[in-house]
């Protein structure tokens, strides 16, 4: 089983990430892009990488905004899988011009 990380400590290691509200152990980030196509392109890039890692975000998209929640369901909290995927998400967002 994968070791769980403290969500607050994990979020501190990242730019623009926070802790999910409530008692759910997860990290969250909201990004805005130039338009819907750019947001969707970003999501597609992340989806391909997430599938390769067999670790998938919970997310939603409305026009130019993408809200992302990361947690490792089988571990019951945040793990290194989430930290690593968050770092990939950050790089993909930067490349696509995503802003907090």
Structure in words:
- The chain is α+β, with helices and mostly antiparallel strands and 100 residues long.
- Helices cover 40% and strands 19% of the residues.
- The protein is built from 3 helices and 4 strands, in the order αββαββα.
- A 4-stranded antiparallel beta sheet has the order 1-2-4-3.
- Strand 3 (58-62) and strand 4 form a beta hairpin.
- Helix 2 (36-53) runs antiparallel to helix 3.
- It is globular.
- The protein starts with 6 loop residues before the first helix and ends in a 5-residue tail after the last helix.
Order of helices and strands: HEEHEEH
Helix count from the secondary structure assignment: 3
Beta content: 15-25%
Q: Walk across the major sheet and give the strand order.
A: 1-2-4-3
The 3D shape can be described as globular
Q: What can be said about the biggest beta sheet?
A: 4 strands, antiparallel
Q: What's the alpha carbon Rg, rounded to whole Å? A: 13 Å
Mean pLDDT equals 96
How would you name the oligomeric state of the polypeptide chains in this document? single chain
Kindly report how far apart the N and C termini lie: 33 Å
Poorly predicted spans: none
The beta-strand count equals 4
What share of residues is helical? 40-55%
Structural class: alpha+beta
Give a topology summary:
Layout: H1 7-12, E1 18-19, E2 27-32, H2 36-53, E3 58-62, E4 65-70, H3 80-95
Antiparallel strand pairs: 1-2, 2-4, 3-4
